[in-house]
Specification:
The complex is a heterodimer of chains A (119) and B (113). With 119 residues, chain A is mostly beta strands. Chain A contains no helices and 11 strands. The termini of chain B are far apart. Classes of the chains: A mainly beta (119), B mainly beta (113).
């Protein structure tokens, strides 16, 4: 069974940093692109960032470009999202998701990890 | 960016009745090279992460009941639930995966009447 377990979220002050992790199991992690999608409280879904199988290609939403960095460690089956210069509008539940063989299709998703940016 | 707009924002349907959700993209999500619509549907049940239901606008993901169907092409798409079950209560999202940034509709909340 595919499992994705996010961690690393919490409360951080504006301008601060956090690193999210997503531990994957139940599939050959290194064979699949991965992605982060976030959901602000009571709001819809916003794609944040994606990374290719080997990590050589990364993609970002304009809202996080230059502040967030996606990476992966295939030896540890783990996906990361380094978030710097955090803003109140980054407050959200952050999901990691496995991309299917077709780029841009996400399934399954983790349970999500809450990030709150507030003073 | 491709803007995805769903209608209605919320919908109440009786058990066993048909539910229809619409999704419109600000530009075509068809790739001419393969004539495929890069449009997916997800649902998100309360307290759970989203789950993929349909891709290529009309292909059901493995394990998705056949009461769920997708249709449409180009910029206008529809998700239909032929006979609503209690477990279908959720927020439904369309998503385009034609181009970066991938974008979702604002969601349609489906409830039981």
């Amino acid at each position: 069974e595919v499992q994705l377990l996010e961690s690393g979220g919490g409360l951080v002050q504006p301008g601060g940093s956090l690193r999210l992790s997503c531990a994957a199991s139940g599939f050959t992690f290194s064979s699949y692109a991965m992605t982060w999608v976030r959901q602000a409280p009571g709001k819809g879904l916003e794609w944040v960032s994606g990374i290719s199988t080997g990590g050589g290609s990364t993609y970002y939403a304009d809202s996080v470009k230059g502040r967030f960095t996606i990476s992966r460690d295939n030896s540890k089956n783990t996906l990361y999202l380094q978030m710097n210069s955090l803003r109140a509008e980054d407050t959200a539940l952050y999901y990691c998701a496995k991309e299917l063989e077709v780029a841009g299709l996400f399934d399954p998703w983790g349970q999500g990890n809450l990030v709150i940016v507030s003073s | 960016d491709i803007v995805m707009t769903q209608s209605p924002d919320s919908l109440a349907v009786s058990l066993g009745e048909r539910a229809t959700i619409n999704c419109k993209s600000s530009q075509s999500v068809i790739y001419s090279s393969n004539n495929k619509n890069y449009l997916a549907w997800y649902h998100q049940k309360p307290g759970q992460p989203p789950k993929l239901l349909i891709y290529w606008a009309s292909t059901r993901e493995s394990g998705v009941p056949d009461r769920f169907s997708g249709s449409g092409s180009g910029t206008d798409f529809t998700l239909t639930i032929s006979s609503l079950q209690a477990e279908d209560v959720a927020v439904y999202y369309c998503q385009q995966y034609h181009s970066f940034p991938y974008t979702f509709g604002q969601g349609t909340k489906l409830e039981i009447k």
